[in-house]
Design goal:
single chain, 91 residues, mainly alpha, 0% strand
Amino acid sequence: MIKSALLATAISFAFVVPAYAQSAVKCDEASLTQMRKDIDALTDQEKKAKSMESWTAADAAFKANNLDECNARMGDTGKSLQGEGANTQTN
């Protein structure tokens, strides 16, 4: 019984944490500037290209005053910077 309750809790967090992480990103000029600096500092060219693509979309959305879209794209950029969604496995 306790195992199933713990499993249900763990599964719930698996869905809540990524949603929170994406919504915690603030779409403003300072955040965009810092994120661009982080992208420029990357040495992995594949990760840099993917991050730059989503950052460009976030910047365009910010300039168009579409903050919902900007927040979503900044969340994508953050994931790219962290390497989430990449096809890399560690054993």
